[in-house]
Give the backbone structure.
Amino acid sequence: RAFVKASRRSLDEINGRDLSKQEFIGIFIDGISFGEVLIVAALGVTTEGEKVVLGLAEGHTENAEVVSALLDNLHERGLVLTPRFLAVIDGAKALRSALLRRWQGRVEIARCPVHKKRNVLEHLPPKYHADIRRRMSVAYGMKDHEEALGLLKKTVLHLRDINDAAAASLEEGMEETLTVVRLGLPDLLRRTFSTTNPVESVFDGIRSRTRRTKRWKRSRQMVMRWTAATALEGRKLDG
């Protein structure tokens, strides 16, 4: 009962605290599944470089309604974003659509290349993985946008001789996987905003602290409370 009360306070803190006191240059949005329940989390980076868990929303999938509800919550709590800001996502179309619908003209969307590599490789036999992973990694590591884009386009042509689905997967949203390259971000910001790793690190802490819990489907509110509690504790431990 004590933990239920404390974890409910954690959820109220994350989804209820005032966001108007800090300005954010970027946000990360990604989802984590617990049994049949999916939690979509937003993490922000302030102009001072602080990472803040902004909000949580619950649903079956990363659909437009869930994402819109999360963004509405952030807006109502006074989220302050720089005139141009970066949103790093895993590539889910619902995430992209919801972000553009709310912040068209202000948001630069960056697709996570780690997710993109994973999606492309899922279409290929293992014998091709090392070569395609290397080609994509070289492209994503380049500093010149046109060179990086050219290499990815060559990789698409190469993939068409192997597997059309893999080629289509790489081609879909390809430009947005190179957003941080196109923007010419300094090395530190580029490392920070190249992938969804900052929010993934929060998820890793949640998985570590909840790995023995098996019966999430009994209480959807339980999932939200535990996620909030472990997310806040993880940020404290990370400093």
Summary: Residues 220-238 form the longest helix (19 residues). DSSP finds eleven helices and five strands in the chain.
